[in-house]
Design a protein that fits this description.
By secondary structure, this protein is mainly α. The protein is built from 22 helices and no strands.
């Protein structure tokens, strides 16, 4: 399977998964049987996601350390980090603001007219991790092996930052052997990623089929207004993000969107940002982003820049309030925005992190926790959209920062059409591109006759 055909295969798998899931749901005699049948699909999807999670920790560690070591000086690291965090905070604020705006304009929950439930109704979701006193210490790993075993991305990022700066400091004494080993690990993990991604269509088929088998297509009709309103909001967020990217990248932003369609579809189909991480990194390299920028900014984005998830959290809280007829004033909504800005950071490694954040937010603003049960049934379909948006947001952020730093080179020739037409490998195409750049430089340097 050629990687430039991966998008097509994923699209086919998505359609087949919907069909297979609908057929299995219709043939199941009851909900218990549908759940048991869906479990077999979930088993296959879980195998694929386990393969992806297997490569996340070493890939994040290797790329982030290599990115830090590859920086020309320490000031570059600080400057890129500051620019990245500035973009992340701004994007998070805009995402939350759009979520509140669309929820207030469309009122997706007002038609439900639900009575307030028993105050003791519970959702059985653990929310203690959102306590600031609990959250802050958990940013720092007590063991890098424990952090890697649990794929705690934020903790891995913290250790990688320490390790990368330490390696820079002792580079002369440690020699180039350590640096070469880290660089070699990056290339090995990218090749492992290529192998794992061969199974992406199978994973996508199983994940979609499992969701439809259990929930059925009918659940989409019940919450059609809520789902449609949320995806309309996501569309506006995409427009804002692309416009911001266009201001820096100009026309190349559309080529970037074309390149990241594969990881976006992987994220959409599997509802897993981790599944899309390796392919996103590969496509950014094809776009011309230098590896040291990708290796530094992209892992940070996975911990701090979850645009789609941020928008969902604000949208979902207001949906629950509207469904139960609870009025939220402008001041209350502003407080909600500020709370979500803080509480949602570093939640990327938690399963269904957005639901956990929403579950913790509801009681803080006088809303029934049981309201979360309203959206849990369709959350998998919402998770698809917000996860795909996270991939788009991080791809744009990484490319924009690379442009600001002067580390956005020409697009690699070899990746798709260029290498295929010329019969070149990726390495050969990159070599040819380098030779063309040198030839162009010589021509520019020649004095005019």
């Amino acid at each position: 399977m050629k990687f430039n055909k991966l998008t097509t295969w994923i699209g086919v798998a998505l359609v087949l998964g919907i069909g297979a899931g609908a057929l299995c749901h219709a043939s199941a005699p009851d909900a218990a049987a549908a759940k048991e049948l869906g479990g077999y699909f979930s088993m296959v999807a879980d195998i694929f996601l386990r393969l992806v999670k297997m490569i996340i920790a070493p890939l994040v560690f290797a790329t982030l350390v290599a990115g830090i070591v590859g920086m020309s000086d320490g000031k570059s690291v600080g400057r890129i980090g500051a620019r990245a965090m500035g973009w992340f905070v701004t994007a998070s604020f805009v995402s939350l603001l759009l979520g509140l705006l669309w929820a207030n304009l469309l009122h997706p929950g007002t038609s439900m007219h639900l009575p307030l439930p028993d105050a003791h109704a519970a959702t059985h979701l653990k929310t203690a991790s959102l306590n600031f006193k609990e959250f802050l210490p958990n940013v720092f790993p007590k063991s890098i092996f424990d952090a890697m075993a649990s794929n705690a991305v934020l903790q891995i990022v913290v250790f990688s930052l320490f390790f990368g700066f330490a390696l820079r400091a002792v580079r002369e004494r440690a020699g180039e052997a350590m640096v070469s080993a880290i660089d070699g690990l990056v290339h090995v993990m990218i090749k492992v990623t290529d192998y794992v991604m061969l199974f992406a269509p199978v994973g996508v088929f199983a994940a979609v089929a499992a969701a439809i088998t259990v929930q059925g297509l009918g659940v989409l009709g019940t919450f059609a207004r809520f789902i449609a309103s949320f995806y309309l909001g996501l569309s506006s967020l995409w427009l804002v993000l692309v416009l911001a990217g266009y201001l820096v990248l100009k026309g190349r932003v559309f080529r970037l969107l074309g390149l990241v369609k594969e990881p976006t579809m992987i994220a959409f189909s599997t509802a897993s940002s981790e599944a899309a991480y390796p392919k996103t990194m590969e496509q950014l390299k094809k776009f011309g982003v230098k590896s040291e920028v990708t290796g530094f900014v992209l892992p940070l984005g996975y911990a701090f820049n979850l645009d789609g998830s941020m928008m969902y959290q604000a949208f979902a809280v207001l949906f629950v309030a509207q469904a139960y007829g609870v009025e939220m004033s402008f001041a209350t909504q502003l407080s909600l925005l500020l709370f979500l800005m803080i509480s949602s950071k570093g939640m990327a490694g938690v399963s269904r992190a957005s639901l956990v954040v929403v579950a913790a937010t509801l009681p803080m603003f006088g809303l029934p926790e049981a309201g979360l049960l309203l959206i849990m049934g369709v959350d998998v379909f919402l998770d698809m959209g917000r996860t795909a948006t996270n991939v788009i947001g991080n791809s744009l952020a990484t490319s924009v920062i690379a442009k600001w730093e002067g580390k956005l080179g020409p697009e690699e020739i070899g990746s798709e059409a260029g290498a295929g037409a010329a019969g070149l490998s990726t390495e050969g195409a990159a070599t040819a591109a380098h030779a063309m750049d040198r030839a162009h430089a010589v021509r520019v340097a020649e004095p005019a006759v």
